Amino acid sequence: MQASGDAGRRPHVVHVVESLSSGVATALEDYVRRTPGCTHTVLAWRRSEAQTGDRLDELASEVLLMPPGRLAQARFVRRHVKRLHPDVVHAHSSYAGLYVRAFTTQPSRSLVYTPHGFSFERRDIHISLRGLFWLVEAFLSFRGATVAAVAPREAQLAARLPGRQPITYLPHAVGVAQPVAPPPSPNEDDTPPRLRLAALGRITPQKDPSFFRRAVLASRASALPVKWIWIGGGDPSAERALREVGVQVTGWVARPQALGWLASADVYVHTAAWEGWPVSILEAAALGLPFVARRSPALRMLDPALLFDTPQELVELAWSLLDEQRRADLRSRSRHLLEQHRPEAQQAALERVYGIAPHAR
Fold first, then answer.
1. Cα(40)–Cα(36) distance, integer angstroms
2. Do 23 and 54 form a contact (C-beta atoms < 8 A)?
């Protein structure tokens, strides 16, 4: 579908990322690893308050950092895409999708857009603003870029937009880095809790730390013997609110350390209010952890036994997870999910959207 370059020349893929952090950075690293036959250039904005460290400087041929400011970033993307004249431009998330589709003259057949969660799905903004975001996506859908959706739900939403844009499913597939064991907690007493529940990700409205906090309070009211951990950092007031109810908040740590914290838990707890598809669930599964998740449109296809709707339901699930046999049952479901997100499937999808010959497997 996309241009594959002249014979003998490595296809050049330019990735545009307005917010290079957390799950998007993890996904992008995987995309680069899965297509070693391509030359990868990354145009990115690294938000200083949301960094866990990425390896793109090692994996990509070049990483060019965007300036602050939307207009300056749009001009930066337009200038470098024109200069580099790549075979494929892959935009990641909403603002990058806007920059690439509205401000470059790159042929439509060479554009790929991965929303990583459409902005009009957000639940922390007024419905009128969500409507505006939908109108922008509807308008840009006529540009004709291929939508590489990270989840079936994201593909369905793209199909409902009015433009005739090709859509393909680009599943996440996590190759977990070697975890680094976390330091011992200075607050750990001689009678550790029977269960360690951990969340992972940026402390933002999307991950809904207030939901997590309410579950902590409900667990304390029911005397549940559990330790709650949030792996990551973010909004200072939200971090403080979590710590005030006894949550151990690690703050920003590099990915191997974050995975070490996750590996030390008994169960991964996912409380996000909306998203495309959570990489963190697959990271937990790859570490052999059972997980439970808040029901959302993106996760409706998961086994109902893994899902909860309210903080109280999460606490009730946690009580059942004190039983090792129950945790073993959920671990088997984690392994099944991991089988559905194999690296080979992601690689094949990337080769399709980038229009390159299949790499030897």
1. 9
2. no
> What proportion of the chain, given as a percentage, has pLDDT over 90?
68
Over the stretch 192-204, which tens digit does the pLDDT of each residue have? 668 999 999 989 9
Calculate mean pLDDT across residues 331-337: 87
Which CA distances in Å does 250 have to 42, 185, 267? 29, 10, 17
pTM over 0.90? The answer is no
- CA dist., res. 346 & res. 148, Å (int): 11
Please name the residues in contact with 57: beta carbons below 8 A apart, sequence gap of 6 or more: 63
* Dihedral angle sign, alpha carbons of residues 148, 152, 158, 159: positive
φ and ψ at residue 230, rounded to 5 degrees: -115, 115
Strand 88-92, strand 12-17: pairing: parallel
Domains, in order of start, for the chain: 12-173+342-354 (3.40.50.2000), 195-339 (3.40.50.2000)
Residue 35, number of CB atoms within 10 A of its CB: 21
Distance CA 231, CA 79 (A): 38
What is the arrangement of strands in the sheet containing 291-294, beginning at the earlier edge strand?
A: 248-249, 226-231, 195-200, 267-270, 291-294, 307-308
Strand segments, DSSP code E, in the chain are: 12-17, 39-44, 62-65, 88-92, 111-114, 146-149, 167-169, 195-200, 226-231, 248-249, 267-270, 291-294, 307-308
Measured from the Cβ of residue 29, the count of other Cβ atoms closer than 10 Å reads: 20
- The yes-or-no verdict on residue 279 having pLDDT over 70 is yes
- The secondary structure of residue 176, as a DSSP letter, is P
Distance, C-alpha 139 to centroid of its chain: 25
